[in-house]
């Protein structure tokens, strides 16, 4: 056995080997040590190798998915080694023969299909990047849904695209001239190297045509050599990991970089589109917008927000669909009720294609297609939009498959086919007979006994059973002659002192059937399951189309529900360059305020329009804590949401197509790569200035704040000029450098705006209102006091600030003179509070006096007495 283990392990050195031993997957040697630590399970030993104990650990087969998930999340790959024959068959070759085993699947992060290993509302992409003669391409597939895409992708664009997709695993060529991970270091730990042969374009083309059963890829599009190479590498990797059982993959869809809004990794992180800065979903735009009721609809929403369209007609069709759902609320609510019953057909179909599915996956297909027919009927009498009408055609035409599955399956089938009991009674006569024999054997024997008694006229005849003869017919000796007279039917077996025993061919056959009924029933169910699986796979393209149509309906009605409940409105999206938002709101912040106690979000408007092809920039000044960053982010998100095809959180919006969205907001460092906060800020700013075109929307916050004041001001000044003169884009530029407000007089595309505040009795009140104009103060000291700095520090800060501002106003005080006046260590600890004074004799005397009760003479005398006490 150990020789077999070592031989299999030698072929899978980079993976933990789950070696099937009966009801357990066992691991040995270094695999056992690593797995025991990662899974926090007991490490034991089994036998010896080269004189040393062999470390061993194991996990139960029935709960192995939980352990697999933990190992995958911790960066391991797992080779699953199964028994390929029954142990009884192995014994026929000799008592010491080893059961034949081999790896049936290599489990990696990008090749998961089990529901327990996946997030139902997120795609699990496996990507591949290929380069040929300087041209690059990126392909990606989700084998749990069958989605397959490819994109021409120069290396400089690799980071943004991977950030958009968030693949679990990336396949690269081990022989590439330059390391792609150098361009995307954040994805380095997700990269898997394959040999050059896996990326060979000629071999790749053969793999792809073989997978899709076509002679040429021309029917799917005109693919470049790098695109074919990347797609072929994915197919080769799937062949390696799935051991020849290729998943159901749809024909590849070729995307274009110009088809979607380009958003780089830093912008996605800053805007918290699909996950918050803390890494979770809560606090992200996706969570704030997700009202979908199906898993496929949730995945579609994430795709739309990650890849907003730049096609005006596509966007308008999506908005028309949402408008239909808003205008027909009663119909939309009925649709949502029916959609709640729709299971995840895409993933069920994928598991069936990989032979990992079970009866519940068949039931999911049945239920999903049934709901599709119901939804189509609901919509049939409605004046639906173009997009909904296009999808309605995919919801019907499944009656034959639905009828087959409905007749074949019980209402609530078990998870695994090996459990049996999922085929409905009456569907298969042989199965019904086996079940009857298995479950009602005694009744069948009793019926046969009654039949024989009537045939012979011997009412005392009995059918009995023992371990020697099995089933037999027994009668007394006095009636034996009647039985012998029917010798064609009754065959003599045994005579005892008082009884004579017979059998019949029918009884012998029935005995065999009863003994084998349980196993036979299970075999029949497995055969029927395979028949049903093939029937479903024959309809796979139509099922996938229905699933996509259901997801589209789910997303449409979910966005309508969001718009109605949150008072979102339809944006106008066109090919112009205007960016006009009236009463815009930040959807995530507004939701958070409501959850925290109902504080109302202050809406603000934004107008970036030059009327031509020049720059349109707002230079935003104002105090800390006033809401500048929120204002910047909300306008970026409104553009993104509009081009995703949704209503937006604003009273109205007119969005000229945004080709690129850039955000440089917030402070962070990258110590692992030796980058300070300021260095990260400059790298991200450089990327914006080098890439932004005239249809980009850029939001920048506090450029230059990570360095010396004059350096920072110079960089911010030059950056704004470059955005205006070279990039000529739309931008929101927030800064504390009030000196920059003078640029509005110099640059025609720059306008000043500020976030207003009120001062009241020394307190700062943030109004969170953005108005035209400029701020002359940052109120940093006031914010510091609100943050809880010690009063002595706040007081000292005010003193230093007053001196600096006076020196600047006089234009005479030099920095050294100010420092001399305000020495670096001039801060003093606060003086101790004075001791409370002792009570004086005068005060003691007065404490007991009631003036209203004194006569004039008594008052005069009191005055003399008090004077005497002084």
TrEMBL record:
Keywords: ATP-binding, DNA damage, DNA repair, DNA-binding, Nucleotide-binding. GO terms for molecular function: ATP binding; ATP-dependent DNA damage sensor activity; damaged DNA binding; mismatched DNA binding. InterPro entries: DNA_mismatch_repair_MutS, DNA_mismatch_repair_MutS-lik_N, DNA_mismatch_repair_MutS/MSH, DNA_mismatch_repair_MutS_C, DNA_mismatch_repair_MutS_clamp, DNA_mismatch_repair_MutS_core, DNA_mismatch_repair_MutS_N, DNA_mismatch_repair_MutS_sf. It comes from the Bacteria. Pfam families: MutS_I, MutS_II, MutS_III, MutS_IV, MutS_V. ATP binds at residues 622-629. Residues 829-850 are annotated as: Disordered. Residues 696-712 form the DNA mismatch repair proteins mutS family domain. GO terms for cellular component: cytosol. GO terms for biological process: mismatch repair. This protein is involved in the repair of mismatches in DNA. It is possible that it carries out the mismatch recognition step. This protein has a weak ATPase activity. Belongs to the DNA mismatch repair MutS family. HAMAP family: MutS. This is DNA mismatch repair protein MutS. It comes from Celeribacter indicus.
């Amino acid at each position: 056995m150990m020789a077999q283990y070592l031989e299999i392990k030698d072929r899978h050195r980079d993976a933990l080997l789950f070696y099937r031993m009966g009801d357990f997957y066992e691991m040995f040697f270094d695999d056992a040590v690593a797995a025991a630590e990662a899974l926090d399970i007991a490490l034991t030993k089994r036998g010896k190798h080269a004189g040393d104990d062999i470390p061993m650990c194991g996990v139960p087969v029935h709960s192995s998915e939980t352990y697999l998930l933990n190992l995958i999340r911790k960066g391991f790959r797992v080779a699953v080694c199964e028994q390929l024959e029954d142990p009884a068959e192995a014994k026929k070759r000799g008592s010491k023969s080893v059961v034949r085993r081999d790896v049936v699947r290599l489990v990696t992060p990008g090749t998961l299909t089990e529901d327990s290993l996946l997030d139902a509302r997120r795609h699990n992409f496996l990507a591949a990047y290929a380069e040929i003669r300087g041209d690059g391409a990126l392909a990606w597939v989700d084998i749990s849904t069958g989605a397959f895409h490819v994109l021409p992708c120069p290396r400089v664009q690799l980071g943004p695209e991977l950030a958009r997709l968030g693949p679990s695993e990336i396949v690269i060529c081990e022989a590439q001239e330059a390391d792609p991970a150098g361009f995307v270091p954040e994805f380095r730990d997700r990269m898997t190297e394959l040999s050059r042969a896996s990326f060979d374009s000629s071999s790749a083309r053969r793999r792809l045509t073989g997978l899709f059963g076509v002679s040429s890829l021309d029917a799917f599009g005109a693919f470049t050599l790098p695109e074919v190479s990347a797609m072929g590498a994915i197919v080769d990797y799937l062949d390696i990991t799935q051991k020849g059982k290729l998943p159901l993959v749809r024909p590849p869809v070729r995307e274009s970089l110009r088809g979607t809004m380009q958003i780089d990794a830093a912008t996605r992180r800053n805007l918290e589109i699909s996950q918050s800065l803390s890494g979770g979903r809560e606090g992200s735009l996706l969570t704030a917008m997700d009202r979908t009721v199906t898993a496929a609809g949730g995945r579609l929403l994430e795709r739309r927000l990650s890849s907003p369209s730049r096609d005006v007609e596509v966007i308008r069709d999506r908005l028309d669909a949402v408008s239909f759902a808003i205008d027909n609320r009663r119909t939309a609510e009925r649709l949502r009720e029916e959609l709640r019953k729709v299971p995840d057909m895409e993933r069920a179909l994928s598991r069936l294609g990989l032979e990992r599915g079970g009866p519940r996956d068949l039931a999911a297909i049945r239920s999903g297609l049934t709901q599709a027919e119901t939804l189509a009927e609901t919509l049939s009498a409605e004046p639906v939009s173009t997009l909904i009408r296009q999808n309605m055609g995919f919801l019907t035409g499944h009656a034959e498959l639905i009828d087959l599955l409905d007749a074949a399956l019980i209402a609530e089938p078990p998870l695994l086919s090996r459990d049996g009991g999922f085929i409905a009674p009456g569907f298969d006569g042989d199965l019904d007979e086996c079940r009857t024999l298995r479950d009602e054997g005694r009744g069948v024997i009793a019926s046969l006994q009654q039949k024989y008694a009537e045939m012979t006229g011997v009412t005392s005849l009995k059918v009995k059973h023992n371990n020697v003869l099995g089933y037999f017919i027994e009668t007394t000796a006095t009636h034996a002659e009647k039985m012998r007279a029917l010798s064609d039917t009754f065959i003599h077996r045994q005579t005892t002192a008082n009884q004579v025993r017979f059998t019949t061919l029918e009884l012998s056959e029935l005995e065999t059937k009863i003994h084998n009924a349980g196993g036979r029933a299970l075999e029949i169910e497995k055969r029927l399951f395979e028949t049903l699986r093939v029937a479903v796979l024959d309809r796979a393209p139509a099922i996938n189309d229905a699933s996509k149509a259901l997801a589209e309906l789910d997303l449409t009605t979910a966005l309508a529900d969001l718009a109605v409940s949150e008072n979102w409105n339809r944006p106008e999206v066109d090919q112009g360059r205007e960016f006009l938002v009236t009463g815009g709101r930040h959807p995530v912040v507004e939701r958070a305020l409501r959850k925290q106690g109902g504080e109302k979000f202050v809406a603000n408007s934004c107008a970036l329009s030059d009327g031509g092809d020049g720059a349109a920039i707002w230079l935003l000044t104002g105090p800390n804590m006033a809401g500048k960053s929120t204002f910047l982010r909300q306008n970026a998100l409104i553009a993104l949401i509009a081009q995703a095809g949704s209503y937006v959180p604003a009273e109205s919006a007119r969005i000229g197509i945004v080709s690129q969205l850039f955000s440089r907001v917030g402070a962070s460092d990258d110590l692992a790569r030796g980058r300070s906060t300021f260095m990260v800020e400059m790298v991200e700013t450089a990327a914006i200035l080098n890439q932004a075109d005239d249809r980009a929307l850029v939001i920048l916050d506090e450029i230059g704040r990570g360095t010396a004041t004059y350096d920072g001001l110079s960089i911010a000044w030059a950056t704004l000029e470059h955005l205006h003169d070279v990039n000529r884009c739309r931008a929101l530029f927030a800064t504390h450098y009030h000196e920059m407000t003078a640029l509005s007089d110099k640059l025609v595309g720059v306008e000043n705006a500020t976030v207003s505040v009120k001062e009241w009795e020394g307190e700062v009140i943030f109004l969170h209102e953005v108005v035209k104009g400029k701020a002359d103060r940052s109120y940093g000291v006031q914010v510091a006091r609100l943050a809880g700095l010690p009063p002595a520090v706040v007081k000292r800060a005010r003193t230093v600030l007053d001196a600096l501002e006076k020196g600047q106003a006089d234009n005479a005080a030099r920095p050294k003179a100010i420092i001399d006046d305000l020495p670096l260590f001039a801060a003093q600890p606060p003086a101790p509070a004075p001791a409370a004074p002792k009570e004086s004799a005068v005060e003691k005397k007065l404490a007991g006096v009631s003036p209203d009760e004194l006569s004039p003479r008594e008052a005069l005398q009191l005055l003399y007495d008090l004077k005497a006490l002084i």
